[in-house]
Structure formats: C-alpha cells, structure tokens
Amino acid sequence: MKAKSDLNTKVMYEQACAFLDCAKYTESEKYKIEGRTKSHLYVDMSLSALACEIFIKCLIIDKNGDYNNDHTLEKLWHRFKFYDQDTAEQIEGLRRSAQHGGAVGLLHLAVHRRLQAGVHADGAAGEEKLLQKGGG
After folding, report:
1. Widest Cα–Cα separation across the chain
2. How far apart are the first and last CA of the chain?
3. Average confidence (pLDDT) over 32-46
4. By three-state DSSP, how is residue 83 classified?
5. Local confidence band at 130 (pLDDT 50, 70, 90 cut-offs)
6. Which pLDDT score, from 0 to 100, does residue 128 have?
7. Are 115 and 13 in contact (CB under 8 A)?
8. CB within 8 Å of 91: residues ≥ 6 apart
9. When comparing pLDDT for 28 and 76, which is higher?
C-alpha cells in the first residue's frame, strides 16, 4: 500500500462518487442505454461494488490504516471495523434500519461527512459524531 501521504482521500472520494453516479444512471436510464443485453444489472452491481470498495478504503486511510491492496468488500469492512469500531457499528445500525439508500449510500455519507468536517486520524478537528443527523 502507498503511504497515507501519497493518497488523497478527497480524490478517491470523488472517483468513488463518479462510479456511484454511473451505477445510478444504469438504474434510472436502463431502457435508454443501447447495449447487447436488456439489463445492465451486472454493470450497476459492479460499479456500486467498486464505489463501496473505494469509500471503505477512504475510511481506512483516514484512520492511518492499511488495506493491503485488498479488493474483497468483506475483508475491507472487517479491517475498517478494526480501526474504527464505533463508526462501523453506526453504519451497520443505519443499514439495518434501511435508511440512507443502502450500504453504498451509507459509505458515501460517511466519507462525505468526514471530508467536510475535516476529521483526521489524529482527531484534531470535527470531534462530533460522524453520522449524526443533520450534517453532510
């Protein structure tokens, strides 16, 4: 893995958002997209999974963590949970209550709020709870 100083989580976040936008487009415009298949479900799922992967990696990097160039969402999630169990449990709780548009929506929200609040691994700023209602 690259050193944290070599990685820009804001750029990673923007890239993940772009993948998420494309995934949403394949859902909302599924009949307008020309293609060899009638469904773009696999494209949507792949883009959503890639967005989730990048969002989780942003959260891990923010905690000065190492994701070992892993691409398995489950392994990445457990690694993030190791570095920040409180936030991981908040996200899991919201996902169970079916708020915020599913797992990818929650990851997007978590990274977005962390970037806006200027929260860093050293806790120097933005001590408020990451997923409190209202912010973001």
Report:
1. 51
2. 29
3. 74
4. helix
5. very low
6. 36
7. yes
8. 106, 107, 110, 131
9. 76
Tokens representing 102 are: 């599913």
| Residue located via tokens 């690694």 | 79
* C-alpha dist (Å) from residue 64 to 10, 49, 129: 15, 23, 19
- CA dist., res. 21 & res. 24, Å (int): 5
Own/partner pairs for 6-11, CB < 8 Å, 24+ apart?
A: 7/61, 9/58, 9/61, 9/62, 9/111, 9/115, 10/115
> What torsion, rounded to 10 degrees, do the Cα atoms 96, 134, 131, 116 define?
140
Nearest to 63 by CA among 108, 131, 9, 122: 122
